[in-house]
Amino acid sequence: MKKVLLLGAGLALALPLAAQPGAEKVLGAAKSGETHIIVAGGAQKALGAVRTMKQAPVATGTAAVTPRFQAPSLHASTTLPEGFSLIESFEGWDGQTSGWLPEGWTLRSEGSPELTDLESWGISGSNATFGISAPEGQYMMGISFATNEQDEWLETPTIEIAPNYELKFSAFIDPSFLFCLDNVDWDNMAFIGEPTIAATLKVMVQPEGGQWTELWDAVTPYLNMGLDELLYNHPAAWRNYTISLSEYAGKKVKLAFRYVGIDGNTMYLDATSVGLPALDELHYSGPISTLYFGYGSAPGWDALNLPLALYPVFAPITWTNDSPYSNATYSWSYCDPASGAWTESTDEELTVTYVPDYSTESSTRNNLFYPPILNGSKEGATPGEYQAPYQYFQAGGKAEIMLSDGLWNGGLLPFEQNSDEITFLSAEADFGELSTPITGYDKNTDKFWYSQTFPGETNPAYDAYVDGILNFVYPTDVPLVVEGANVLARGLVSDDALLTLTIYPLTEEYMPIMDSPLATATCSGAQMVKYNPVEFSLDFITVPFKFDTPAVLDNSVPGYIVLLTGFHSDKVEYFAPMQSLKPHETLCHGYLYKKIKYDSDEYRASFSPLANITGPEGPCYNAFCINLDASYGWLRTETEEADLTSGKPVQIALDSYRPGEELSFSGHDGITATATGRYGETVLSIAPKGETVANGTLVVSAPGHKLEIRIKGDNAGVESIVTPGAEIEGVYTLAGVRLAGPEGLDSGVYIVRYTDGTARKIQVK
Question: Whole domain around residue 691: which residue ranges?
């Protein structure tokens, strides 16, 4: 189905060489609709709309906007597919009935009789206070923590276990609150003595006629972790769990989710199933040029919580199956470009070309489609499917969407900010000081890079520092037209600071051609958008740039870089450029532009990938928050020739992403051309300037696009240029200036030279 749209920065990364994060880091700004800052101090409790939930030691602000979109819900099937004995996503609740449970499920409390209903398992909707929503559908099971003893059982119906069956479920569990936090040295972020388990989630099994046995305990993977590691594992999203049930093959059993302990934290459960192993590693890759809706330029890093990718129109888009399974059968389900209906394909790769949709005002601006689904099946496993993590992709246009309060405009990023989140890289600083931004600048950043580049050296002739940051941008068959960008950072910047953004093309060896910039813009500290709602130590900064002339990124070169410089300056006290938290699967888009001096008075430039730095999720195949103000446009017509032999004006239908008033015209001096309208209603008007018009070509242009229309005129005098049996070598003015050809000549006298060596003087009337 096509485009069903319902309106409605993680921890700083650890560094190699034993560098550790400092006391202040950005946590989950884009994901939750809030900005969180890690601070030293005790655990804080906050009240949610339905259930009380503890937060890791954070202070919350309002730097990000309230979510404006809600994705459509997915509901579990009402019939069990082959290979399953249980599927439950708790979607049968009517939203009102107290104590509702799915058919056959039961509750049992072995805890304190003083517990409230919320302190045992119960149906729950989204917890907007903490940004938690069901991973599948609208509802989930939840349980609040209590200061009385809890031993709360949520039991499944009796089910039959076949060979190779597994239990799968999704849970929201905060590892740090699996342990008691009363014995913590918050200054050193460490437990005092041995950590004590506070409350945990267990999975229990009971064979028919037998006793309950423990299968799994949520606390087990965290028993040997320190407090820092537990806080790094603070859940930014739900996690999926799989438990083998092979030991119970051929038996009937009941399963139970058992919350047990005192003063732990609220947990949520959803998407439970018992069945054959699924093809969990089904996967496809999209084009490396894929871009996503990012952030706008409004204060506070305005962003949508709807994951959206952007692809061009009138160009093939290819998704490649890179699943690891042999002897599997695959197929694709995808949205038909014209109708939007789901269509099937068995091709190894899926290649589709999309076109604009002018059926409604909304689809004209936001031509949305679901990403394709890769289906897989294999003997001994349940059929599986994979769909890209963005909710929709838009075909053509730019990152803009109409909301109830007006048109939202954003930039384009090489990562999806809702799922990948944002952060900045920092290294430990002296006690009481801000952590050092190693990809930006403060008073300690140069010292850090000197020590990393020249370990153990103290030679004053040596030097190394970060002079800029950059993102790679990969082209498609349709030019990407970039009119500017906005860059996100945390920092303290003087009004007289001056930052520069430049786009450079790459050689075939993927080296920047630094002497051939495509576009350059500057932004002063006074022009930056600074936001600090609750007097954080650092501003939330948006650095806006606007190019005088748009940069056209086409496929004439293998790629481009967008380079930000100028923050290495005494006008900048602190500058920490934001980047994606989660690494890309294969590509490192972000690089550091460093200057290094070694045994010479000359600095040399060095381009260093972020992947050289290791974070909690592995090498940093990340990208910076350089939001491109860019679009995939188009300019087309079905008309190849305009006949002006009658001397009267003609009109030609165009299909133009740019308004007609922004189109330019060249190539023929004997006519006038104007255009009005936009999209499929663009009209080109062509009229002769004089009584006669020579044959020629009209070139219609927009940034990144052009088309040619032949002009048919009376061409008086030009026919006499052509001599039977001879080819024209060239046409020249009497001053000897060679012209483009015989077409479109203005009135006058010309010299025509032929390939047989002869020449003639002709007159065009």
Answer: 635-712
